[in-house]
Amino acid sequence: MSDDHSTGRRLLERLEARGGPVTEIRRPGGRVRLRCADADRLGVLVEAILVDQVPGEVGAGQLRERLEALSRRVDYLPERLALVEHDPARTGALMRSERPHCAGASREYYELRVERNRNAAFRRFRQPPGAAGRVAVPVLLDRETLARLVDDLMSALAA
Q1: pLDDT tens for residues 8-58?
Q2: pTM beyond 0.85, yes or no
Q3: Residue 156 to residues 10, 14, 103, 106, 107: CA-CA distances in angstroms?
Q4: Which of 23, 96, 106, 135 is the most exposed place for a label (fewest CB within 10 A)?
């Protein structure tokens, strides 16, 4: 997004000004928190992007449509996000990498979890070989990609 006043760009400005592992910005469209392991002038090692307190309610059908549109719009990540679970009763959804990255016997994938159609968490996970669980791993995003992703997440959840 080229808008210098976008939420993603403002989040990056705040990250530069304050540094630290958690950066937060509040906008009329909600609050975004960025947890990062490291950042420099080229990119950010992102642990999580958390969007919450988005005002208004989005109906279950509309949420599904918006997330499907988000899947088409976010074509700049190495792995395309796909809607894998939608719970209309709880107005929640789960998106994951359509084709996870496989390195040897382990898999890595993006995950976007939406709860009560007002809160979302974007993270990357690794499922080690033979392990029953998964571990969160940071993902390196260049600054432009991070700003676009934040703006696209905000847009998809806004009422």
Answers
A1: 888 888 887 776 677 888 877 678 999 999 988 889 999 999 998 666 667
A2: yes
A3: 18, 23, 31, 31, 27
A4: 135
